[in-house]
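Q: Could you predict the 3D structure of UvrABC system protein C?
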Amino acid sequence: MADPSTYRPAPGTIPDAPGVYKFRDAGGRVIYVGKAKSLRSRLNSYFADVLGLHPRTAQMVTTAAGVEWTVVSTEVEALQLEYNWIKEFDPRFNVRYRDDKSYPVLAVTLNEEFPRLQVYRGARRKGVRYFGPYAHAWALRETLDLLLRVFPARTCKIDVFRRQSRIGRPCLLGDIGKCSAPCVGRVDAAEHRRIVDDFCEFFAGRTDVMMRRLDKEMQEASAELEFERAARLRDDLGALRRAMEKQAVVLGDGTDADVVAFAQDDLEAAVQVFHVRGGRVRGQRGWVIEKVEETGTAGLVDQFLSQFYGDQFFGDQAGMAEGADTDTTPVPREVLVPELPEDHDAIAEWLSALRGSKVQLRVPQRGDKRALMETLERNAKEAFLQHKLKRAGDLTARSAALQELQDQLGLDSAPLRIECVDISHIQGSDVVASLVVFEDGLPRKSEYKRFAIREAATEGDVASIAEVVRRRFARMLSEPVAETSTPGINPETGRPRKFAYPPNLLVVDGAGPQANAAADVLNELGVNDVAVIGLAKRLEEVWLPADSEPVILPRTSESLYLLQRVRDEAHRFAITYHRQKRGKRMTASALDGVPGLGEARKTALIKHFGSVKRLRAASVDEISEVPGVGRHTAAAVLAALTQEVLNQGEAVSTGDGNERV
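A: Sure. Here are the predicted structure tokens for UvrABC system protein C:
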């Protein structure tokens, strides 16, 4: 534990200006990022008496070994830089306003000739209009299925659309009237786009015009004695009313807003968000975060707005294309919060830049918006209470598991970082390995690694384990470190190097031979501060290197449960990689022996059908439609793929010799 006074900046060296600061630990990793209107005032607050600091703040400053800062011109620049650094370094002490779910939205691909309606998760793209997010995909699909009766727009993927176009017959949705079947020319592009535009208008909340129009058409059809058409319009009106009943009207003025509320204590806070579009609640989400500093509601709002909307707009992979239309932006016209943060003007300016038009940030004082805020605050308090009841058990279980592992394995300290290696293959072919990382008893997926086994692929699981351990730790030891750089940090990017930090405990999937192989490699490399164990699946035995008898952990112990979770996660990650690699090999090998089928035709086939699975399901006539592929070659391709399936009655072998089908 470091003493903050050992790295406190000299008096007068911290500028009295806006900026962003980073705390680093002894290994050079960024553990906390923050912004301040005055760097001098904010940083000096961290070096007060440790006993008087917030518990998480005290833990952070005693874990850190240094602090650095960057001065900026405006608070908006500080806001942007703070968000960028949190995304880049993923500091362990920063609050992350994100949950483990990907919420679905309704996407309308307006950038296509025949736009498609789809339930979608992922990065936002230019030219696509989005509605949502929604809490439940099943509810969104039910609503979409209901509305397709009134707005029969295309919902199929492009390969299905092209296939039905080739065969000249619509799919099932076209036959039952839930698609206007543009694939076979029942409607042209202009008519189909009109259907999609009407759908977007309805989903955007402008429902009254649509309802009045359908009612007028129904009355006219009835007056003209077109009773079948009138009955269909009556049923359409009923479908629209049922769809509208699924979304409660909360703001009668058609407001587009996000409403945010918090419930908190000294250590944690719960946040709840209502997404209101067109006056209707389109989605709700909520989660609980740990408070790093002693802060009130205004401070939580400040942190939430920058991180939540930054993640929503840019996405985990910068998915929002630059210059996208404002219809696609997740930033609403109005954000209702319980308290305004100190720098609310800068935040509103930043949000307006993200949206491309003015965004209002305000506290509702009266009327429907105030009533909605109070409802959301009650939801936040209830969610916080439920979290407290569950969290007490989770924290106790994780702490007990780590303490038990330290005691039962005779470790010097609790294994706060655990890594696990697993091997996957089919009878010695396509040998791959996974390495997963758990910190504080929880998976850290950003540091997972996967390996394609090279030298030891034909020598068995023990040799494969040795190769993975050698590559993992040799990489760590061989990284050149400049004299001016911090160990473990790339001086060019400022980010941690891969494999830069060793685990406290290395788990290998297997028994004594696998554990011995891993330990021998570590001894060979001179790594003597990493404990090694093997976990055998058959009896869940724990093997220590060079021991002739296993350690038997109690079946009901939290320590065994944690090891099983780590091992199962490594197995899942290895199997996923193995299937990907195996699928690529099958794609190539299944078509390699077909006479007259070269690389160009193989590529054309896969590109046309999209996958080997779809190619296998196609008929000879469909395959022969690909340019350059005749009926004789098409028949040979189909025969080769059929034979490949018959040859796949094999089991996937795992690292300890057991078989998984």
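Q: Anything worth pointing out?
A: The longest strand covers residues 280-290.
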